Amino acid sequence: MGEPQDGEMKRGSKRSKGASLHVDLIWEVLLRLPSKSIVQSRCMSKLFSSLTTQPDFIRSFAARSSPCLLILFEVESKLFVFSLSQQQQQNKNPAVAHVVDRSYSMLCPDRYFFFNSESVHGLICVEKSGNPQIWNPTTRRFSTLPIPARSWREGSVSFLGYDPVDSTYKVLSLPCGERRPRQPQPRALTLGGNGLWRVIQGVPEHVPFRHGALCVNGVLYYLAAPTRPEHYTNQSLACFHVRSEKLSMIKVPWNLTSGFRSLVHCGNKLTCVISLGDDINMWTLEDAEKHEWSHRHVCLPFPRHNPVTKTRFTLKGVNGAGEFMYVPRALANPFHIIYFDPKGNSFRRCVVDGVADDQYRRQNGLWDGPLRTTSAYSNHVETLMALRNKERLLWRQI
């Protein structure tokens, strides 16, 4: 076969450039679609599926997603999910309503527990019958992880961490049963890896608290106590570096048995908020190496419990403006989200309409009473993160 002529070579080059331009254009168009449309497009074309599952596409889509407050409530076998924008509103008028960005319902899997942890770069760690699970609210899929250790029969607790350098998710699992297991060392698993748990060595034995974990800049923090029950008041802060998988402990200045503890990221610093009624104590970590903390006591300018409306508010995180977000435990029509500014000791209320109203209830077959909040997650962003079958993580569409 002879060498191609100059004209044939040019035409071939033009076809190659045209095909590349065509793919780049499809890429940009897909990036601007809603997440639901992108997930549906994966079933329409192999090209769409290939493009939207690439790591660069997933990262670009997540970067365009604005942080939102994700609120869940469960009725019988259905899980209702809706999100509210966390962007600070310029108008401080409490009559201004929050706009529901996204709302859907799905069948709720049996024996799933949504603990008050957090959304980690779009994914949420839940538990089913003591086993760790990963939920992606964007794709509405749950993944079942391998059991960390057979000897952890009394139960375990798992936290999700994210390393922004390598864009890697890792799950840290620890035993939390009353009986001491034969293999008490924590274990770590990489999502998208080989599905095998790795033992974390050289860590002092401790009991993790199920609530209040927080991942900031590649470091996973959670509160813990010694393994002996008589020493539970001697709490500490555990730090798990997601990339290096090193786990260390930081001494804490409080010694409490009462009060609800929450870890938040406020002013680029880690803060433990201990709530006891309307009084809150804020302990801010100033120097992790020296175990130095600063303290501030604040009395909330609003009641967390309203006996008239029988409404209780719970801290669910901090928005980009540094405001503490308080979400009601039951959703009436309408309900409010309270934003508390700890610097100015002021607050504002924002009404949320269109979720618990008569029309919404009729469309979804809900009763007239309050809808109890299952959980709420602050700073949630949409992600298209998915796992392949060969990675031994089973995805189930609910």
Automatic annotation (TrEMBL):
One protein family per Pfam: FBA_3
UniProt-listed InterPro entries: F-box-assoc_dom_typ3, F-box-assoc_interact_dom, F-box-like_dom_sf
SUPFAM superfamilies xrefs: F-box domain
Start and end residues of each F-box associated beta-propeller type domain: 68-361
Record-linked NCBIfam families: F_box_assoc_1
PANTHER family from the UniProt entry: BNAA05G37150D PROTEIN-RELATED (PTHR31111), F-BOX DOMAIN-CONTAINING PROTEIN (PTHR31111:SF42)
Protein name: F-box protein At1g47730
